Amino acid sequence: MLVKLSINGEKHEADVEPRLLLVHMIREVLRLTGTHIGCDTTHCGACTILMDGRPVKSCTMFAVQAQGKQLMTVEGLEQGGKLHPLQEGFMAEHGLQCGYCTPGMLMTSYAFLKKHPSPTEDDIRWAISGNLCRCTGYVNIVKSVQYAAAKISQGGS
Amino acid sequence: MALRTSPEVGGMGHSIKRKEDPRFIRGRGTYVDDVQLPGMLYLDIVRSPHAHAKIIKIDTAKAMAVPGVLAGITGQDLAKYNLHWMPTLMSDTQMVLPVEKVMYQAQEVAAVLATSRYAAADGAAVVEVEYEPLPVVVDPRKALEPGAPVLRTDKKDKKDNHIWHWEWGDRTATDRAFGEAAVTVKEDIYLPRIHVASIETCGCIAHFDKVDGRLTVWMTTQAPHAIRTVFALVAGHVGLAEHKIRIVSPDIGGGFGGKVPVYPGYVIAVAASVLTGKPVKWIEDRMENLQADSFARDYHISAELAASKDGTLTALRIKTLADHGYTDAAANPSKFPAGLFHVCTGSYDLKAAHVEVDGAYTNKPPGGIAYRCSFRVTEAVHTIERMVDLMAHQLGVDPAEFRMKNFVKPEQFPYKSALGWEYDSGNYAGALKKAMDTIGYADLRREQAEKRKRGALMGIGISSFTEIVGAGPSKHFDILGIKMFDSCEIRIHPTGKAIARFGTKSQGQGHETTYAQILAEELGIPAADIQIEEGDTDTAPYGLGTYASRSTPVAGAAAAVAARKVRDKARKIAAHLLEAAEDDLVWEPGKFSVKGTPNKSKTIQDIAFAAYTNHPQGMEAGLEAVSYYDPPNLTYPFGSYICVVDVDSGTGEAKVRRFVAIDDCGNIINPMIVQGQVHGGLTMGLAPALFEEISYDEIGNIRGGSFIDYLLPTAVETPKWETGHTVTPSPHHPLGAKGVGESATVGAPAAIANAVVDALWHLGVRHIDIPITPAKVWKLLREKGVTE
Predict the structure, then answer these.
(1) Which of A20, A44, A94 sits opposite B199 (nearest CB)?
(2) Are residues B638 and B749 in the same domain?
(3) Which of A18, B123, B137, B432 sits most deeply, having the most CB atoms within 10 A of its CB?
(4) Domain containing residue A119: CATH number
(5) Measured between CB atoms, does A126 come within 8 Å of chain B?
(6) pLDDT digits (tens, 9 = 90+) for B609-648
(7) Residues pairing with B191 in the sheet
């Protein structure tokens, strides 16, 4: 089945099995391996990407469901050699350790900050509660998102 | 510790940003599943629905009919090469694929090799296995009863399910102390089976090149060198010699102990690649990871603590039953079947102690690995911290005051514990005092008393733990006979930049940053100019890997020693360049200068250049060194944690309101990273304290085999940790450092459990096993008539 989609602004098409999971298309067909797989039950959020601006867990969607959609993955955050404030924030606030959950955290936070530019700490904690991190204890992830929110509100992006 | 280098150099004590982050924040890390090789095949595994069953027949015909499926692999196939069983790290044996029977639910039964991930899964789904169910033994106590079905029928002379008995300490003195004690307390404490559940599961790509006979395995391993040797020992008879094996451990998505063992999937992938000559990828899914990979804990502990009339602790006596599943595949140093559980006298000056542990076989997955913990130290800490709290409450003494009275005092270090450890350093009262001041202990106690009058349930819990990490001194510590040293090799390039390689392997700890900082501290070369590499056995010096908080205590020490060797040679070159005597040179990080004439100096970069262009006659060119560091002792990080919980009397939910963690890991390499390690460790202490457990029903069905019911804490349940530290340097470590990655996992559960029991003590509650779920607390509240 032919799937046509756009990912990080680039158009792609591929002939795939109808049952191919979207995350496998992204990782193995399009070779964008920043999106990870951590569970098979939509709990961990390591596979989170944006579909038409909304965060979705790409391990529980078929590639064919992305027909005609605009996707964005972690590889699309950096623009013109400039890091997104969230990427800067995660580095500045030590919001990552092993890095495995990080792409999903970044994409969830990206969509969240678009809708909620001045969140409270509780808002952030709820927003990322569909993304599991085993290393950081979340405290510094929250700070990383706050860093980005502050930077964006000052016109950082 | 005073800073000795500028922020630009970035030696010890600087919170420099991590060198590994630029690739991770861009999604440019390389984890095992990201590696894709031309012509790669995929392996999927058929698993047992039964916990104990005889295999009558395995039929792969339907699987072979699936397009893309190339082969079905069974135990019979591996038996032709004598690869159907493998040894465990504890010298027991474990099945790679079964020939006669399965021993736990989700055990590997057969494998399917195919040209794609999906075809392999399709094939695995239609492999037909005929089983004859056998009686299942789930409870280790029942496993040891006379007449229990003997599980290990593969062991000819085995007549029961008892694995080993191990005891330590002075039984007579301990029994005498209990006889003389004015007060004793006793409690049964169960530390349930849990799983590290790193967000990346396990997997590998095995690639055997038939032309040159070389095997390369990219795999999720915390100990690549040890794995290479194990592979050579296990598969030497089929031609895999150690010089023909290369293990590459790429970026690892969390390890926590779960990526130390050799799992059957790795071995099957290697065998499949050797037979086909093609790269073979095996990546387990989350359910396979939770259901079949090594578990942690599962200790049934019975503990007694004795005190004199004035509240001085005198003796500790422990009996433990360790459920090892169907084989002892624990990852402990060889001489210690119960790990370092005998650090269980903790931070207290006890005169006598005796510990007994018995291992039992059951129909459960093998394991006994750590859960972000140095070999059974959480089990030890949880026991002593619960018991001390119980004793304090029993005596009606404030638990903080009681601890202060019974701590090993700073002047007693080095302190020989009743169970024979030599604690290197400590200031336990200092850490507890700081924790009490930070959280406002006295005010909290007043608030609690006031709330109790109104019927509100609030508890304050303390844990003043002592860790034991950095295994270990070669006299006592080995894995399969290989001594537990670790290594660093440094090469300084002519332009003054450097590369250093290590026998360890980071799984998120930030070694690329912290090792560079150690070298920056010792050599004055900016951390930014030092490349750190680990995880490739072809290039890194031999080491035992990263687990049990050993990287800083052992490999970090190796880095310092290797750097000092470099400096020794640099001094000779500097003397040559400055035409001065070596003794007349003074070192400060980054340069040698002539005593009394500080403007006459040579930087480390000048010296590096000279090492290749202008070295003294008779000296070999180059500037490099290697150290295989054998630690003289373990290190003993410690800390005091205080937790405040509010218990909802309607739902039974215990909510952590505040948690203050004061850690002492000696001198700190990077404060930002240390704090991050403590945050993560605390969250992996909270998790088993309140949420996580893997249990089994009476026929061995796993409960908690997916993230649907194995509950990892999210950002919502995790409190805002408050951290701080005291600094008591290790006297024997070259940098005075101790290791910190696991302290919080070890110390936190007891603080939380103590807080919940403290909240309910006045109702007559004496102990609650973790995880302290709302259901358990609600049941207790109902029994006590607090709720309906």
Answers:
(1) A44
(2) yes
(3) B123
(4) 1.10.150.120
(5) yes
(6) 999 999 999 999 999 999 999 999 999 999 999 999 999 9
(7) B299
